[in-house]
Amino acid sequence: xxxxxxxxxxxxxxxxxxxxxxxxxxxxLNNEKKAATEITxxxxxxxxxxxxxxxxxxxxxxxxxxxxxxxxxxxxxxxxNTIFDQSVYDFVKDTDAPDSANPSLWRNTQLNTNYGxxxxxxxxxxxxxxxxxxxxxxxxxxxxxxxxxxA
Length: 151
Hints:
By secondary structure, the protein is of the alpha+beta class.
């Protein structure tokens, strides 16, 4: 029985990915903000009961070792086209999750907006938030006491 359900769900998902774009163009898909359904509201409200949102441990982990960051983070290409702009995520800062968003994922997104140079350990540094990935480097030595060379 489980196998039949999995196969059916997989088949529906696969068929959906093969639909012509015109099918979606005729549907209700657009970029307008929509209210959450009652079941979505209920499920997301239950997340508040499961997790302790007053616990600041994850926030401390996300900011631990912070060294420096530019005031704003916009990356442009050689033709001055913006290719990454951290400010597009500002809408999540200092706000509670809307009914339509899982509160845990909303909080995770808030923590991911921390960007800059972080010291992870004595000789490991990370550059965070310049995309959806992190870059880590290991200190090999120092020159003139302040400038360090990285592997």
